[in-house]
Amino acid sequence: MRELREPLQQLAECGLPTALEAMGERWSFMILRAAFNGVRHFEEFLSEISIARNILANRLTRLTESGILHRTPCPDDRRKVEYRLTKKGLDLLPTMIALRQWGEKWGTGVLSNPVLVDDRDRQPILPVTIRSHDERVLGHMDLCWMNSADITPINADTHEVDDRVRKLSAI
Amino acid sequence: MRELREPLQQLAECGLPTALEAMGERWSFMILRAAFNGVRHFEEFLSEISIARNILANRLTRLTESGILHRTPCPDDRRKVEYRLTKKGLDLLPTMIALRQWGEKWGTGVLSNPVLVDDRDRQPILPVTIRSHDERVLGHMDLCWMNSADITPINADTHEVDDRVRKLSAI
DNA sequence: TATTATAGGTTTCTATTTGCAACTTAAATT
DNA sequence: AATTTAAGTTGCAAATAGAAACCTATAATA
Lengths: 171, 171
What we know:
The structure is a homodimer. By secondary structure, the first copy, chain A, is an alpha+beta fold. Helices cover about 40% and strands about 15% of the residues of chain A. The first copy, chain A, has helices spanning about 15-25, 30-35, 40-50, 55-65, 85-90, 95-105, 160-170; strands at about 70-75, 80-85, 115-120, 130, 135-140, 145. In chain A, the strands form two sheets. Chain A has a two-stranded antiparallel sheet. In chain A, strands 4-5 form a two-stranded antiparallel ribbon. In chain A, strand 1 (about 70-75) and strand 2 (about 80-85) form a beta hairpin. The interface between A and B is large, with 102 and 101 residues. Strand 6 (about 145) of chain A pairs antiparallel with strand 3 of chain B, so a sheet runs across the interface. Chain A binds a DNA duplex through helix 3 and helix 4.
């Protein structure tokens, strides 16, 4: 980010306000976390999170409206409703993990247990970081803003990393 | 995350509530974004963000109290106060970028410009992802929870990636 | 079949938070 | 000395959050 300041009139146009409109309300991230942990029903959310009924109802509606959750009445028990993460909702996982890791790192030294591991090798995941196109880990001093028109395109096919990322986000 | 559900009683103990306590209020992320873009003074925040004076004052105090911003009276102009990101605040960059990228990807197809690039090669950064200890990009189906006591330690020295990350977060 | 329990809400009312506008205080500029 | 700037504070109205009771449809139980 350095000395280069993002053109400030355009600050309003970035993705952050959009994201906050969907996820900026109180409890939204907690509901999301529960959903990632397999929670699917109203009463289940209610008992996992210490949230008021009406607020939960409101948030679930809003998360559904914004396409983060999908609401389906259960065919087998018609009292029940299933809330499931959509692709859009699942795509919030990096954000959520990043936020959570930050909380763990800087919070009151509660060493978190259990820990998130890669199912394949059972090793803890890395801290979420910002990476250059060739996967180098970047700090905030390594970043700057550029007009997208001024960027020299590189041949993405020669970069299998980009492919992996593209493939992942196309699930 | 798969079928393995995080022990739910322990849901309360993860880093997310901590993080949300500091960053969960309305405007906090917008203030953070402004700070990352070099905004440092009260009136400057006020003109960049469409926030009310009293709310801004309140948020700046709270962000300062939670150690995300550092507040210093300016020596050269003693009316002014400087708010600067601390290390703890800077460490929120991956979270913020992840959130922003999500907003850009799923928001109303406003192709964002300017774009964040690596200062070194002027190429756009990658989408923020979750990675295994050996840098593989992981999706939510690749993750599971494990008791930290049950994890087989690997020799971190043989993994230069971990070193890079460790070095970065030690700035 | 009648009764009770469960699931997923809604309603009502109160407390807290947000937001606007005006005011304040100290320091710098003209 | 008068004005402007910076960083707040105060007072008040509107919006939002939260607790508790209530409601409706369905399912399970006696």
